[in-house]
């Protein structure tokens, strides 16, 4: 679920972003790639943003009915706090496991990334805001990947999208490493693998 089209600033760090795909829908480009990897995949691409009103309906339409042995996990990589919080709240209400990505923009040291409960985050402006919003909704626990590194100031090479003050800069290895930590978390949880 993503309304974004590929932008030139995405090229250094996002799989669907190439000069040949600039201006194309991210969901369509990623969907084509995933189906090329696994043609048997059941895939639903939704080229729009989530809003508080449509989170429940989207989850109903995208997630299969519970079945014996069927596992579901949500990965939240939403940029906008209100949408992020709405998705987390709905997932928690439904008992769906969720992990959220926080604050990789304007960071340069991937070794500082952490996978932890949001209560243990420090030094991340996005984590602080999300933690406050979740607490106001009675949500105290959330698995997150974040970095306590102080963000750098990013040069603004393009106009920010509606509702944003700036476009954060990203170095290819920071969001990539955050994605790998999230992947590890989801696979370990779904497989119930225990690390000693």
Overview of the molecule:
- This protein is an alpha/beta fold and 196 residues long.
- The protein contains 5 helices and 4 strands; from the N terminus they run ααβαββαβα.
- It has helices at residues 26-37, 55-62, 81-94, 125-136, 173-191, and strands spanning 74-76, 98-101, 114-117, 143-146.
- Strands 1-2-4-3 form a 4-stranded mixed β-sheet, sandwiched between helices.
- β1, α3 and β2 form a beta-alpha-beta unit.
- α3 (81-94) crosses α4.
- It is globular and about 50 Å long.
- The termini are far apart.
Give the low-pLDDT segments. Answer: none
- Estimate percent helicity: 25-40%
What is the typical, i.e. mean, pLDDT? 86
Give the beta-strand count.
Answer: 4
The biggest sheet, with number of strands, parallel, antiparallel or mixed sense and barrel status, is: 4 strands, mixed
Please give the count of helices. Answer: 5
> Could you tell me the strand content as a percent range?
5-15%
Helices and strands, in N-to-C order? Answer: HHEHEEHEH
Radius of gyration: 17 Å
Task: Please identify the structural class as seen in this structure.
Answer: alpha/beta
End-to-end C-alpha gap: 35 Å
Which descriptor suits the 3D outline? globular
Q: Widest sheet: strand order?
A: 1-2-4-3
List the helices and strands and how they pair.
Elements: H1 26-37, H2 55-62, E1 74-76, H3 81-94, E2 98-101, E3 114-117, H4 125-136, E4 143-146, H5 173-191
Parallel strand pairs: 1-2, 2-4
Antiparallel strand pairs: 3-4
Helix pairs in contact: 3-4
């Amino acid at each position: 679920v993503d309304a974004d089209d590929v932008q030139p600033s995405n090229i250094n760090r996002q799989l669907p972003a190439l000069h040949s795909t600039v201006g194309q829908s991210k969901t369509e480009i990623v969907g084509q790639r995933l189906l090329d990897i696994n043609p048997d995949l059941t895939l639903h691409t939704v080229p729009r943003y989530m809003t508080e009103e449509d989170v429940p309906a989207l989850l109903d339409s995208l997630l299969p009915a519970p079945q014996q042995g069927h596992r579901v996990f949500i990965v939240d990589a939403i940029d906008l706090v209100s949408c992020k919080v709405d998705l987390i709240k709905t997932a928690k209400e439904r008992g769906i496991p969720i992990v959220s990505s926080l604050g990789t923009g304007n960071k340069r040291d991937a070794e500082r990334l952490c996978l932890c409960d949001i209560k243990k985050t420090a030094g991340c402006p996005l984590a602080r805001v999300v933690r406050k919003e979740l607490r106001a909704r009675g949500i105290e626990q959330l698995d997150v990947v974040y970095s306590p590194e102080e963000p750098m100031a990013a040069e603004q090479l393009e106009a920010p999208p509606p509702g944003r003050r700036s476009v954060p800069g990203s170095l290819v290895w920071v969001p990539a490493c955050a994605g790998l930590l999230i992947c590890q978390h989801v696979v370990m949880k779904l497989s119930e693998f225990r690390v000693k």
